[in-house]
Amino acid sequence: xxxxxxxxxxxxxxxxxxxxxxxxxxxxxxxxxxxxxxxxxxxxxxxxxxxxxxxxxxxxxxxxxxxxxxxxxxxxxxxxxxxxxxxxxxxxxxxxxxxxxxxxxxxxxxxxxxxxxxxxxxxxxxxxxxxxxxxxxxxxxxxxxxxxxxxxxxxxxxxxxxxxxxxxxxxxxxxxxxxxxxx
Length: 183
What we know:
Elements: E1 2-8, H1 17-32, E2 37-43, H2 58-72, E3 76-82, H3 90-97, E4 106-114, H4 119-131, E5 134-144, E6 149-150, E7 154-155, H5 160-180
Parallel strand pairs: 1-2, 1-3, 3-4, 4-5
Antiparallel strand pairs: 6-7
Helix pairs in contact: 1-5
EC number: 1.7.-.-
GO cellular component, one term: cytosol
Keywords: Oxidoreductase
């Protein structure tokens, strides 16, 4: 069985990402229709990670361990990413910097939301994650705050995104299965 982590990378209060992440998990479960693929939502906000390089408190040390263990448990990932100031959210980049062996020979796909569907954030992530050993899919799903959110806050995605997600899942599941043979 393949385990795919759907990782929500924004911790901002009032974030739009939770609705996007829930939609992604719901649609992925419906579209995959496969008993051999499991999807699980992982919310970065559930992990009190310190800034990398700072001495962690005991609680933060435990959070680092829990974050590492959770991420290591997956065969592939869908990263739900916002775009802040033309890049990836700082908290998400910081959280990713705690990881490397957990990602070796695994695949990642991206679902982004923002002014340009988080296209620049996704491009930032592709460079960082390649260094961490992840292979990224070609297909992304990009939600616009202007067209896929009512008043830039209520998630109402256009129907065509479902087809994009199906294509993304096909690539991600294929790559995750193939790369599992290397581990």
